[in-house]
Amino acid sequence: MTRATAGPEIERLIQLLARLPGLGPRSARRAALALVKKKELLLEPLADAMAAAVEHVGTCSVCGNIDTTDPCTVCTDPTRDGSVIVVVEDVSDLWALERAGAIRARYHVLGGTLNPLDGIGPDDLSIEPLVARCAAGGVAEVILAVNATVDGQTTAHVVTDRLSHLPVRVSRLAHGVPVGGELDYLDEGTLAAAIRARTPF
Amino acid sequence: MEWTDQGVVLGTRRQGEGHLVLDLLTARHGRHLGLVRGGRSRRLAAALQPGNSLRATWRARLDEQLGHFQVEPVTERAARLIAEPSALFALQALATLARLLPERDPHPEIHAAFEAVLDVLAGIARDSAGMAAPPSAGGNSFLGAPATALLVARMELGLLEALGFGLDLSACALSGARDDLAFVSPKSGRAVAAGPGAPYADRLLRLPPALLGRQDGADPSPADGRDALRLTGHFLDRHVFLSRGLAVPAARVQLLALVERAER
To answer: Which residues constitute the signal peptide according to the record (chain B) (predicted)?
Structure first.
């Protein structure tokens, strides 16, 4: 058993930091030490920022994004095309698409994928609010930007089914060769999908 | 401890940031779990999708430990399966059911049947019963929803038996006849022939001949697919899902809805 080398406050800080993605116990200890050493420069501003986040951050009631305002910045942005909704599994996917800057549309966060083992069914995901948004009118296209996994695509088919009675075009992201991908290393199914989805060049 | 076997991926669970716990239905070692180091990497993520077949080597210091797998893809069907809703729902429904098999209890016949069914669903093999697999516009050769439903129901019959709740569809429970079986008793799970069963038809479950592999070369009708799923669904509900406090998998519900839609 390891003996505690610092007071309970610092040990607790290390334990909490170690729960963050990308940080194990050793790197959490290093991060905690860096914070404590630069108390005024790092620790206090970080604590203030976290307190502010705790107070203001919430989930957007329209799309499920995380922001400090409700509706979120994306939903209230007048420069975005409100007739297109990009459906994503998680907020991290929304942020990834925004980073890419590929589309200026609105979003809808499902909050996960169908997972029979974990007991996550269609009613546990934000599918009905999406259907309600589309039924309210003004939406011409729904782009299913879910992961190209079995769980992700099962979810996509269920969403498509729920939207089938509405006059909305449903599309999905292309499947095929990723940038930097070498054909030799791709699985047969992905190669077949890439051939089927070939485009004029 | 070390062994190498072929298996079908039933699912995965995240372990830490880069690893996965793989749930594999192997040919000789039954349903087996193991850690795959770096399983969430780009290199391995595609191979570890449900429905793919892998050659896996399992190693552990002691037999009772979780151990870890080293895997190599053998047949990668996932990308084909995700292109067709009925095939994808079938895969999810069957994988969910197969995950209820006890761990490390060998079921070589279930493994072989699962591999065969997945090959047919993925459009890379034809069903032994001769179900037509018309080529789709995309170039793949997928079954229609009714034939997929029948295939799923047949696999479910095998899984029910492996779970200890097999149905007796060999002969009529009333007359002993082996031909013209048309119904199944919802209580006993035994087949009933058309004649003796006719007076009780409204209380019996319909047994589509195609479920027994008796088919005159024609494509199965949507009604056959629907009845086959309702038949196995009744016994799955009663013996498997309800007793474990589980809901019927959403994928199975969707597959049945697809078949019912094809009927209209």
So the answer is: none
Cβ separation of A192 and B92 shorter than 8 Å? no
Find, among B105, B95, B23, the residue nearest to B66 by Cα: B23
Q: What percent of chain B has pLDDT over 70?
A: 91
Q: How far apart are CA B69 and CA B147, in angstroms?
A: 35
B121 three-class SS: helix
- Measured between beta carbons, the chain B residues lying within 8 angstroms of A161 are 85, 254, 257
Structure tokens at A86: 């990009």
Specify whether B249 is located in the same domain as B158: yes
pLDDT in tens, A171-191: 999 988 888 888 888 877 788
Residue B116's nearest CA partner among B129, B134, B101, B97 is B129
Please indicate, yes or no, whether residues B146 and B22 belong to a single structural domain of this protein. no
Give per-residue pLDDT as tens, B230-250.
999 999 999 999 999 888 999
* Residues B46 and B84 reside in one and the same domain: no
Reported as a single tens digit per residue, the pLDDT across B42-69 is 889 889 999 999 999 999 999 999 999 9
Integer Cα distance of A134 and B107 in angstroms: 47
A121 touches chain B (CB under 8 A): yes
B106 shares its domain with B215 = yes
Whether A189 and B76 lie within 8 Å, measured CB to CB:
yes
ipTM of the complex: 0.84
Instruction: Note every long-range contact of B220-225, with CB atoms under 8 Å and residues 24 or more positions apart, other chains counting.
Output: B220/B131, B220/B146, B220/B147, B220/B150, B221/B146, B222/B145, B222/B146, B222/B259, B222/B260, B222/B262, B222/B263, B223/B263, B224/B146, B224/B150, B225/B145, B225/B146, B225/B147, B225/B148, B225/B149, B225/B150, B225/B153, B225/B259, B225/B262
> Any chain B CB within 8 A of the CB of A198?
no
Q: Compare all CA atoms of chain B with the CA of A124 and give the residue at the minimum distance.
A: B250
CATH C-level class of A8-56: mainly alpha
* Parent domain of B68: 2-75
Which is nearest to B129 in space by CA: B111, B154, B161? Answer: B154
Number of structural domains chain B divides into:
2
Across chain B, what does the average pLDDT equal? 89
Mean pLDDT of B123-135: 50
Q: What is the pLDDT of residue A24?
A: 87
